[in-house]
Amino acid sequence: MNKKIFTVLLCFWPILNIYSYQTGGLLGFGDLCILAYAVFYVRFCQRIRFFKEIKYYFIFMIAVTAMSLLDTCFIGEKGEGAGAISSIARVAFYAVIVIMYIPKCLDFEYGIQIIKRFTIANAIIIYAQTILYMFFGRVTLLILPVVPLSNGETYDKMYRSLVAHSGSYYFRASGCFSEPAHFVQYALVGILLFLYDRNGEKNVNDRKSFWLAVCCSGAAILSTSSIGIIFTVLIWVHWVLTTLFKRYVPANLMKNYAVLIPVCLLAFLYIIRKLNVFTILLGKLSFATIMDSNSSFAYRVSRGFEIYSKFPLREKLFGVGFGNISSYMQSTSALNSYADSDYMNSIAYILCSVGLTGLIFFLLIFYKLLSKNYFLKIFTLYILALSCCASVFSSDIWMIFMGIYIMFDRAPSQKIEGKVSYG
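Now predict its structure.
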């Protein structure tokens, strides 16, 4: 029972963290629930043991926490003070969960089922939201209106912004998440889990999993998130090419679905054309290197690297410490033009916070995974690519990434016979 409780909290952490005890609160409900579980588990249940699967993550966190504390002291008045300490504390708290709790408390099979089913549920909601907007002009935002939001916004303000954006540009469905990018980060994990089994082999003979992956992929594209469109296309192009090359395709697949596949494809292309999805994507990518554009994708992809390139040598090597980026930019003349926001992708955030040295420790986490089973190789490349496009490090979705990494890393030692399907 303890494992199932922790697994539910972990898998729904991104949703729970939408809400907080007050508007813009330091901790979301997900953080508070995990913290309460962690305290209860240590106090009343059993001792926590250290697991070898996360030794590189342990080395990384010890190194970057120490570096961040030293950076905060070194830059002095240019630092954030209390804000830096709270950022370091959050990074350390998430590290404790990854190192001490996930290997011991996560029920992997149960977690896989939750992620898959929740991804499907949100995909269905995305389709429903899109249809309501296309045919009835109804804009829907499925977050609780009476609970304070951790992002500092209010429900009314978010709804008015969504309506205005839909009228001026295009509708962005997000399911139960607060924004499409968050849904996509979660959904892409579900898609990979549908396409591969626990042994890291493809579920090519599991037709149910295949079609559910197709369904989730369609929802990711309809969300109009740049990350969703790009990564969904890349995942499927890789899956199709490697499947054909290795001749994994069952002989009767095209025979059974010779009519269904074209009909579904034409219907989906019609919806995409109505929503101008690819026009939207091309418009976003055309501003990827322009710093004054309004595209969040452009901010995430290029802005952080622009800031890092203007750092002095010492800061390039060791960073300015977690939580200090904004105040450091405000107090450095060469970076004043960027001081309005420290919004950036995870790789740039690590470079700016703990420098090139910290990034080397970060890459060590994934070094061994490239020699593991096929799924872990794909998943590692997905995490690293996503880290270049989105802010996922030290976040709730990052905890799910680490949970999957740890449990799949254990799979070879468990001597699983045959293929296992969790469809």
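The mean pLDDT is 77.
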